[in-house]
Amino acid sequence: MHDENTCLPVSRRGVIAGGVATATLAGAPAIARPQPPMKQGVAPTMPVSFTVNGKPRSLDLDPRTTLLDALREHLHLTGTKKGCDHGQCGACTVIVDGRRINSCLTLAVMHEGDKVTTIEGLGTPGDLHPMQAAFVRHDGYQCGYCTPGQICSAVAVLDEIRDGIPSHVSADIVGKPAFSTDEVRERMSGNICRCGAYSNIVEAITDVASKGGKA
Length: 215
Ligand code: FES
Ligand code: FES
Fold this sequence. Notes:
Layout: H1 12-27, E1 46-52, E2 55-61, H2 67-74, E3 93-96, E4 99-102, E5 115-117, H3 119-122, H4 130-137, H5 147-162, H6 181-187, H7 198-210
Parallel strand pairs: 1-5
Antiparallel strand pairs: 1-2, 3-4, 3-5
Helix pairs in contact: 4-7
The structure holds FE2/S2 (inorganic) cluster (2 copies).
Residues 141-147, 193-195, 197 line the site of one FE2/S2 (inorganic) cluster.
């Protein structure tokens, strides 16, 4: 028998021994290559700049930071609440570029240049937004934990209806949706109130809608 590459004579015993050696090598654990040393305790950050409640804000953030945590932990705007942190309760609702979003479901660095409005930006204790005043008038809360999200959502709901955006209960998805209790209940269904203040919340929103958005 000859090796077909070298043309040198090889024995059957030599072929078997070579095969065994190859199989043994293939089954051997990979030899660990030296890795560059990891930097301990230094998370890479990314810069982001946006406007929050009319003020330009710039942050350097771990890119995994949610908008909710950026608002609460970095800008100390704790009016926006963390309920589930999973997009299921609506407590973290804020308005970004005129549309409501769950701030726990979006990364802060995705909002470069955006305009963010939180409950603190809607009104102040001495100058309440009409929706805040209506929630007070109609007792639209009990513990109040869901209330900032409810109010931000409610403000955006009236804008959605005004802008002709249909919901799942709109009879006509092409025409302009009309304001109704069903529309409000459907559109507010992502905002959970564990105290069950729903009927008063709907009354507050209806009150504001009936006055054309005024207090
Ligand atoms: S905290 Fe964002 S939806 Fe519950
Ligand atoms: S007022 Fe308590 S959860 Fe809504």
